Amino acid sequence: MFSLAAAPVILAAFLASTVEVVEAFTIVLAVSLVRGARPAIAGTLAALAVLAGAVALFGPVLGAIPVHGLQLVVGVLLLLFGLGWLRKAVLRAGGVLPLHDEAAAFARERDALAEGTGDWLAGVAAFKAVLLEGTEVAFIVIAVGARPGMLVPAASGAALACVMVLAAGLMLRAPLARVPENSLKFVVGSLLTGFGLFWTAEGLGAPFPGGDLAIPALIAAALVLGLALAAVARSALAGRSNWA
Amino acid sequence: LGVIGELGATLWKMFAGDLPLSAAILAIVALVVVAARTGLLPAPLASLLLGFLVLAAFAAAVGLAITREISKRTR
């Protein structure tokens, strides 16, 4: 179906989309449980329509940009985005930042919605959640699929994530708090950083030695560095609290 | 308007969540572009330098955040 070279692209799009869809699902679920299914569905469909319109509008523009220019721009954006995720994941794993709590996010949203907001505002909450998280999914799909023949595998990875999260959420009817979000962010941050470095170098006309084989090596380098930094943070903070 | 504002904030957070790190990455890319385009560095060296400098900037940004947190907890 897809070539072996598409595997890291599908994996990156799938894992990153899982994180984003779980976050959007938490808000949509809160809207649905507090205000009913109607505003939740209406807000979600409206956001998906806006996203589809934006992709249809900007997609052809991307095709008109020269390949090297597109690779450079996408590579740099992926680097900025991926390193941001990896930094946050390292600081959370190292105990510098608190872990993201999906159950707490759900409770906050549910309490806010219960404070007398109407169906219209509840629909807007669902719309915003799907639009904001969906924008990140759209960017990731376009960025990791920015190579001839890779957009369909990337979109398939994202679609699979949507289906799986929705299926799990509909079965549980509860926030997906047991999804190991920080571990996913760690892996996704490393994947996006690896892709970002690869595309940036290709865009510069100075590709890494080894061709496509450089991609897993770059991903591994980012992952190992992230794990080492998280270990340093843990031991530094533990040493400080023992000393204090 | 509120949604557009939040969309702008999301995009800003996506690409410039840690502003000094993002600025450092852009500066490194600009430096390597100049070095590669002027022929100062051969192609494989330019890509390896890019990888090394980007990961070093990342390590420095995380190290700085850890140091800040330690000094905050000490206070």
Give the proportion of residues in helices of chain A.
Answer: over 70%
How far is the N terminus from the C terminus of chain B? 41 Å
Rg calc of chain B: 17 Å
* Morphology of chain B: flat
Structural class of chain A: mainly alpha
Shape of chain A: globular
The tally of beta strands of chain A, per DSSP, is: 0
The proportion of strand residues of chain B reads: under 5%
Low-confidence stretches of chain B: none
Largest sheet of chain A: none
What are the SSEs and their pairings?
The complex is a heterodimer of chains A (244) and B (75).
Chain A: H1 7-35, H2 37-64, H3 67-93, H4 102-114, H5 119-144, H6 151-172, H7 181-204, H8 214-243
Chain B: H1 2-16, H2 19-37, H3 43-74
Helix pairs in contact in B: 2-3
Features:
heterodimer; A: 244 residues; mainly alpha; 8 helices; 0% strand; B: 75 residues; 3 helices; flat
Description:
The complex is a heterodimer of chains A (244) and B (75). Chain A has 244 residues and is mainly α. Chain A has 8 helices and no strands. In chain A, 50% of the residues are buried. Chain B has helices at residues 2-16, 19-37, 43-74. Chain B starts with a helix and ends with a helix. Chain B is an all-alpha fold and 75 residues long. Chains A and B meet through helix 3, helix 5, helix 7 and helix 8 of A and helix 1, helix 2 and helix 3 of B.
What's this, in brief?
The complex is a heterodimer of chains A (244) and B (75). With 244 residues, chain A is an all-alpha fold.
